[in-house]
Amino acid sequence: MTSLNITPEDVLRMAQNLRWEVGEDIHEHITEAIYTEAARLADRAVLRPDKEGRFDLDRAIDRLVTSRRWGFPIMLLLLTLVFWITIAGANIPSDMLASLLLDTIHPLLKSWAASLGIPWWLDGLLIDGMYLATAWVVSVMLPPMAIFFPLFTLLEDFGYLPRVAFNLDHIFQKVGAHGKQALTMTMGFGCNAAGVVATRVIDSPRERLIAIITNNFSLCNGRWPTQILIASLFIGGLVPAHLAGLISAAAVMGIAVLGVLLSFAVSWGLSRTILRGEASTFSLELPPYRPPRIWQTIYTSVIDRTLIVLWRAVTYAMPAGAVIWLLANIQIGGDSIAAHIIRLLDPLGLLIGLNGVILLAYIVAIPANEIVIPTILMLTVLITGFNPSGTGAGVMFELDSYNEMLRLFQAGGWTLLTAVNLMLFSLIHNPCSTTIHTIYKETGSKKWTAIATLLPVGMGFLVTFFVAQIWRLLASIL
């Protein structure tokens, strides 16, 4: 037997050369050959009733929802409809919850604490801080989640979401990512941490890292309330009342689509730089359409998604409310700690079309995106002194309607630019602490965890900076 002086490096070099010689579409040809042979064997072994002339509903629907011409418009139309129903249906129950938790229960708790002689600082910490922050999370988050999640789950049960992945598969391959990233991105619309875990279905380590890093651009459940509220107050207010819900839904839809486009762009950039490589083939078998089990879907979506997410938000809102109250009521040099921090952050915030209140709120809300709006509300009261309830500074307050909330933001110096850039920054900023921890567990790498955390927040600052400068330039010209 003769020995060949072939080193492992020679084998790898030969494999690399052969890989490019066989062509980029070799995986598609292999997959097509496998399915063609499987179909041939099935035709020989399986007897099927003659369906010639029969109407096939599944094929008829698929010809529409997966077509090159109508697939994407139908997808956008369905998601816009879901957002419109969520926005139009959430306002009244949200006001009712706010009235109950803030206008009724909060005064009762204050009276009860006064009758027991509880010290003012403990009363403020527990009731004006922890309770009111939690009450605002419940009143702002629960109604839209209770509507959005069942609607989204109905689309999932019907079998439509795999069609979304089918429509997006070709684009993901073009940008150098895996087609299954469409599925993990869809999971991210519920929870980014769940989307990161779902990337386990991607076999290629390179493509899995791309999916993990870009999953943050999917609007998670904690960011939907911020998008819906700001769009309703500022975007919907630009048009007549009968069009406000539709325009607000279109604005939220635009932000969600922008997140998808950013996923494509960042995937393309990563696949051609630090994660260079060839995209793998994704074979997706579309499940048959099934009639949604409406009541079971509503029950499971409320229990498995809405209440679990709400409980997570409450567990983070309570300590966050305590922190905010302490920052607002502990004074240094005659001013609160929160006021000092806000003044320090204001120059940067104004440069990017936001303000110090919003930046501080996002620092406090790193544990959970759900508490961004309650934090902004409380801090804005502290800075502006706008407080319909007449309570002291740093105390969360009662708002009877969206109009009072709009008045509060305007008293804090908010403009349409502030609202637009908040919606953009809510989309493009660092993941929450749960997602960051999940990324580290899945990658086992501090390097990739840092990239997945710092890349989006850096992009958020850049995008809002350029939007603010272009906005102000056009405003000065016009």
Brief summary:
The protein is an all-alpha fold and 478 residues long. Helices cover 73% and strands 1% of the residues. Strand 1 (331-332) and strand 2 form a beta hairpin.
Please characterize this protein's 3D structure:
- This protein has 478 residues and is mainly alpha-helical.
- It is built from 19 helices and 2 strands.
- A two-stranded antiparallel ribbon has the order 1-2.
- A hairpin with a 2-residue loop joins strand 1 (331-332) and strand 2.
- 42% of the residues are buried.
Keywords:
478 residues; mainly alpha; 19 helices; 2 strands
Beta fraction: under 5%
Distinct helical segment count: 19
Instruction: Average the pLDDT over all residues and give the rounded result.
Output: 81
Low-confidence stretches: 389-398
Whole-Å distance between the termini?
85 Å
The H-and-E topology, N to C, reads as HHHHHHHHHHHHEEHHHHHHH
The major sheet is characterized as: 2 strands, antiparallel
Helix % is over 70%
Physical arrangement of strands within the biggest beta sheet: 1-2
